């Protein structure tokens, strides 16, 4: 204690370090001496500036004589452990950096050299029975100095561990900086700290699962009786099924949480919030969040062949200074890929994640427009056009995410709606295959192109279009949607979010429309004449008789003239 305020070169066999730093510090401590031993270093107390992150304030520990040596650990504001680190040689370096916030940071570190091959009796180990005891080395005599013991406790599945210290006496310090016992909820000492204790007490701890870790660390002075503890395994209550429903569309994300499920976790609707706390739920018999896909703090991530939209529902106690109620996170994820929207719900509690999935679809449609302004869609079907008339087609995506692009990759025409063997390429792999096709640059949620109307040579009255559509993240610089035409020999796997196809049609020539109108007129006239059939039947019969007589007279005259000229005839056989 009493080393220079910002950094030092240390050569002692062991030494406590009380460090106080202010804003904008960057200090290096180097521990090194010629010894065939390694170094054990702990930071038993540390306070960083409030709300600081690991990027702006941290302690970085390096396995060697400088900050160029391998990084073996980092301590920052959210470190949920009492870090104990060991070097692989006789040198160790740590760097403390602080941000610009005016705040006094305090740290307490202690290091000592030791021989790794030296083992202490009754110091740590693995306990696997349904119950058992553990004591500090030499208990009830004073524990040794420079002790570091780790006990791993693991009981049967579907149980948790109850740990009770019947006797406990370690060196007393307000922050437990010198000698301490730390208990972890899990099998590691890197995270999951349940508590750190010292002095005279009889603490009790409980894990959330069937694993627990207990650590004893002592410095070079003031040893006491230590501890004796007993652990027992307790059956876990039957797991509560996550009664959570998630639906995703191109527009919205909707989450429904049942009140009974929240109550089983110890919460109600007042404790629930999204990444953006201003997005409040509607609370009825259930707690319902419904919001635009790219809002309320939703995080979008491009994963190559898919895009995910993730939000987090946090359940935490409010209105108290302290709480012993564990926080719960429900991670909801909409995953857009492979012709579907995959909805995933993760329930995260005490490092246990449960999930459920469902499926939906993107909302993509294609239609024709009257002109290149794409302002007035063609609503009639079939769509009657003139041969060589310019047709304007648009594919649209309905989505509230503004950072998506629609790209028309391939478009084929067919006289049949099932697109059988007879097809004709308009666009293939983003390349125009018909010389009348003109594609427009991608525009947010729209893919557009135009071409001249045609007909198939055989007697097919209709033309149908089927287009393969790609949807990409507009923030992806080299996505498939921005590459345009890619000839087959140059094609490679490019980034796109989702692929589907859409069909529009039929298209028919206007002469078919005239035939259809004529047939319709005859049908309509017949329908109108039906009530008056008897009125016109006499006139119709008279007309037919008159025409028949004229035909008979003409036939007789022609027969007479042919015989006069010496001509004959032969009946033509029906083909």
Give an overview in words:
- It comes from Himantopus himantopus (Black-winged stilt).
- With 575 residues, this protein is mainly beta.
- Helices cover 10% and strands 43% of the residues.
- Strands 21, 24, 25, 26, 27 and 28 form a 6-stranded antiparallel β-sheet that branches. It has a 6-stranded mixed β-sheet with strand order 30-38-37-32-33-34.
- A hairpin with an 8-residue loop joins β5 and β6 (71-75).
- The longest helix has 33 residues, at 533-565.
- 28% of the residues are buried.
- Residues 319-325, 338-360, 518-536 and 562-575 have low confidence and may be disordered.
Write the layout of secondary structure elements.
Elements lengths: L7 E3 L3 E8 L4 E7 L5 E10 L10 E5 L8 E5 L8 E3 L4 E7 L7 E10 L10 E3 L3 E5 L12 E7 L4 E11 L10 E5 L8 E5 L6 E3 L4 E7 L8 E10 L8 E5 L3 E7 H6 L7 E2 L8 E2 L2 E7 L6 E4 L4 E9 L12 E10 L2 E10 L2 E9 L3 E6 L13 E3 L4 E8 L6 E11 L9 E5 L2 E2 L5 E2 L6 E7 L10 E11 L24 E12 H20 L3 H33 L10
Parallel strand pairs: 1-3, 10-12, 30-38
Antiparallel strand pairs: 2-9, 3-8, 4-7, 4-9, 5-6, 5-8, 11-18, 12-17, 13-16, 13-18, 14-15, 14-17, 19-20, 20-23, 21-25, 22-23, 24-25, 25-26, 26-27, 27-28, 29-31, 31-36, 32-33, 32-37, 33-34, 35-36, 37-38
Provide a short characterization of the protein structure.
The chain is mainly beta. It comes from Himantopus himantopus.
């Amino acid at each position: 204690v009493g080393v220079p305020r910002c950094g030092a070169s240390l050569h002692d066999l062991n030494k406590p370090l009380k460090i106080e730093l202010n804003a904008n510090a960057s200090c290096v401590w180097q521990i090194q001496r010629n010894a065939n031993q390694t170094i054990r270093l702990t930071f038993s107390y540390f306070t960083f500036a409030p709300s600081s992150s690991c990027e702006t304030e941290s302690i970085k520990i390096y396995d060697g004589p400088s900050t160029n040596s391998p990084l073996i650990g980092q301590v920052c504001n959210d470190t949920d452990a009492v870090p104990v680190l060991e070097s692989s040689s006789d040198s160790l370096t740590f760097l403390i950096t602080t941000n610009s916030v005016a705040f006094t940071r305090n740290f307490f570190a202690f290091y000592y050299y030791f021989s790794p091959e030296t083992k202490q009796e009754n110091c740590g180990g693995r306990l696997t029975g349904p119950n058992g005891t553990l004591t500090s080395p030499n208990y009830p005599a004073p524990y040794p100095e420079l002790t570091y013991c780790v006990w791993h406790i693991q009981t049967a599945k579907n149980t948790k561990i109850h740990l009770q210290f019947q006797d406990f006496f370690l060196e007393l310090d307000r922050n437990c900086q010198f000698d301490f016992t730390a208990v972890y909820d899990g099998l590691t000492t890197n995270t999951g700290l349940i508590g750190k204790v010292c002095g005279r007490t009889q603490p009790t701890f409980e894990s959330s699962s069937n694993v627990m870790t207990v650590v004893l660390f002592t410095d070079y002075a003031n040893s006491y009786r230590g501890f004796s503890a007993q652990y027992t395994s307790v059956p876990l209550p039957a797991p509560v099924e996550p009664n959570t429903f998630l639906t995703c569309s191109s527009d919205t994300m909707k989450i429904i949480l049942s009140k009974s499920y929240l109550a089983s976790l110890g919460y109600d609707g007042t404790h629930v919030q999204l990444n953006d706390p201003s997005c409040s739920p509607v609370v009825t018999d259930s707690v319902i969040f419904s919001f635009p896909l790219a809002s309320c703090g939703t995080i979008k991530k491009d994963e190559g062949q898919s895009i995910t939209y993730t939000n987090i529902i946090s359940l935490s106690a409010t209105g108290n200074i302290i709480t012993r109620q564990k926080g719960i996170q429900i991670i909801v994820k909409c995953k857009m890929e492979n012709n579907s929207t995959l909805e995933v719900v993760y329930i995260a509690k005490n490092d246990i994640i449960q999930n459920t999935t469902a499926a939906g679809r993107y909302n993509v449609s294609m239609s024709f427009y009257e002109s290149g302004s794409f302002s007035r869609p063609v609503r009639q079907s079939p769509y009657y056009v003139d041969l060589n008339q310019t047709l304007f087609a648009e594919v649209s995506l309905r989505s509230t995410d503004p950072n998506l692009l629609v790209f028309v990759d391939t478009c084929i025409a067919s006289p049949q709606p099932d697109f059988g063997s007879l097809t004709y390429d308009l666009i293939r792999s983003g390349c125009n295959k018909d010389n009348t096709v003109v594609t427009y640059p991608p525009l947010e949620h729209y893919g557009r192109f135009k071409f001249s109307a045609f007909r198939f040579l055989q007697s097919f009255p209709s033309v149908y279009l089927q287009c393969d559509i790609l949807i990409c993240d507009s923030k992806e610089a080299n996505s498939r949607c921005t590459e345009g035409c890619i000839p087959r020999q140059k094609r490679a796997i490019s980034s796109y979010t989702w692929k589907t196809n859409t069909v529009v049609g039929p298209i028919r020539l206007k002469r078919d429309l005239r035939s259809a109108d004529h047939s319709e007129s005859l049908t309509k006239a017949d329908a109108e004449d039906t009530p008056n059939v008897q009125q016109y039947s006499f006139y119709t019969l008279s007309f037919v008789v008159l025409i028949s007589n004229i035909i008979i007279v003409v036939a007789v005259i022609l027969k007479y003239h042919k015989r006069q000229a010496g001509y004959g005839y032969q009946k033509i056989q029906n083909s």
